[in-house]
Design goal:
Layout (H helix, E strand, L loop, with lengths): L2 E2 L6 E2 L1 H11 L5 H6 L19 H20 L3 E4 L2 H4 L3 H4 L6 H7 L4 E4 L6 E8 L19 E6 L4 E5 H5 L22 H15 L3
Parallel strand pairs: 5-6
Antiparallel strand pairs: 1-2, 3-4, 4-5, 6-7
Length: 208
């Protein structure tokens, strides 16, 4: 069974899993090992004995999601929260440490469905926070089911975007890449609005 990062749910190999479990006591991908201050205490749920989520990473992710949600709403998009954690509150905590096809598919559900205000085109959106500003194909599961999804990566300096198909082609997001969200022609976004939200990101993540 494929290992997944308990923070961002991306796929990790057996070597990464063994190292992470030994050093941090939980499955973390290399990015989350580098970018997150891992809580040392091993808190367990009384009823299940499973480890709880790292609240620091959860908060960073939620802030990133809220920034992107408000960005699209401000531009007139219809925005719908899609992930199962929004439909069934608390389910992600219940699934912590659970390895099954059903649990895996729930974790992979995109965060949002957005609809263009004029053309009415609909898009799957997955939001990620990356202090390193790096995101590539290795950060999602090999059998990721939403092959028409867009991945929006929020960092303390930029908001960038890449599609699943582009990741499959070997493209990636890095500090030097130019795949800014404002350059996505399919979204028709106002770059000035994006810049203002980038300033919000700087404000919230400046200490990361």
């Amino acid at each position: 069974m494929e290992n997944t990062c308990s923070s961002c749910q991306s796929a990790i190999n057996e070597k990464e899993s063994k190292y992470s479990l030994k050093k941090y006591g939980k499955n973390l991908c290399r990015d989350c090992q580098k970018n997150s201050k891992v809580i040392e205490s091993k808190i367990k749920e009384k009823s299940t004995g499973r480890k709880m989520y790292d609240p620091e990473n959860m908060i960073k992710g939620r802030i990133a999601e809220t920034l992107i949600e408000e960005l699209f709403l401000s531009l007139g998009y219809n925005v719908f929260r899609y992930g199962m954690e929004n439909t069934v509150p608390g389910i992600m905590k219940l699934l912590a440490g659970v390895r099954s096809d059903v649990a895996s598919n729930i974790r992979r559900m995109p965060d949002f469905v957005i609809q263009h205000p004029e053309r009415k085109d609909v898009y799957f959106i997955e939001v990620k926070f990356r202090a390193s500003e790096e995101f590539s194909r290795k950060h999602i599961a090999k059998d990721y089911p939403y092959q028409n999804a867009y991945f929006i990566v929020v960092s303390k300096n930029h908001i960038k975007c890449i599609t699943y198909k582009e990741l499959e082609e070997g493209k990636e997001i890095s500090k030097s890449s130019k795949n800014y969200l404002g350059n996505r022609k399919e979204f028709d976004l106002n770059k000035e609005v994006i810049i203002s939200f980038c300033k919000f990101a700087v404000k919230f993540f400046e200490s990361v």
